[in-house]
């Protein structure tokens, strides 16, 4: 508990201070009489981006805390997977680096999954954002296909990024674990993703090669249609 507390404080102090300094600093420049209109737009954009970072950080910490205490409830219902994936893709499109293609490979038929729609979008967004951090060229792909028994659907996020060292692959889902200490984020995104998938009684797997890329995969239960029941 003491080690976890120390890790939490060390990560939080850095991750809070960095965007907060940017917000305070550029807010001051924004009201300077000498600042022209073009500069105001640029400073406003920086403030907005750093505010988003702060909000994401607070949400991650609160979500993880509620998951640990069992206070985060999941609303498991039937949802069209295609729509959920499309919304996640749109939410991360602005984070994709120049020179990287964001692609989507859905199944050739409509698939309804039994899941919490908002949490599913959250975990897909986490996986896509994580891929964007470590992919400088090539492609990030989101795909889903029915498994052979047609009872579950396999969802994958694949990238052509830096890859994960073999010795790190067993720990990347731990809290505060970061492949690159200089990268933005607290190292909570993948930990939250794992907890969301566990709440759906499933597991997440990763296959990665340094310098080639990574693939994160998990499965969800497919909702049973009236025709299948009959």
Q: What does this protein look like?
A:
The chain is α+β, with helices and mostly antiparallel strands. The protein has six helices and seven strands. It has helices spanning 2-30, 37-69, 81-92, 117-134, 189-199, 226-229, and strands at 77-80, 100-105, 112-115, 138-146, 152-159, 204-209, 213-221. Strands 2-4-5-7-6 form a five-stranded mixed sheet. The protein has a two-stranded antiparallel ribbon with strand order 1-3. It is globular, with a radius of gyration of 20 Å. The termini are far apart. The mean pLDDT is 86.
Walk me through the topology.
Layout (H helix, E strand, L loop, with lengths): L1 H29 L6 H33 L7 E4 H12 L7 E6 L6 E4 L1 H18 L3 E9 L5 E8 L29 H11 L4 E6 L3 E9 L4 H4 L1
Parallel strand pairs: 2-4
Antiparallel strand pairs: 1-3, 4-5, 5-7, 6-7
Helix pairs in contact: 1-2, 2-5, 3-4, 4-5
Task: Estimate what percentage of residues fall within beta strands.
Answer: 15-25%
- Helix share bin: 40-55%
Judging from the principal axes of the Cα atoms, what is the shape? globular
Class per helix and strand makeup: alpha+beta
How far apart are the termini?
Answer: 52 Å
Mean pLDDT, all residues: 86
Low-confidence stretches: none
Count of DSSP H/I helices: 6
Taking Cα atoms only, what radius of gyration do you get, to the nearest Å?
A: 20 Å
* Pattern of helices and strands: HHEHEEHEEHEEH
Total E-strand runs: 7
Main sheet specs? 5 strands, mixed
Quick structural gist:
This protein has 230 residues and is an alpha+beta fold. The chain contains 6 helices and 7 strands.
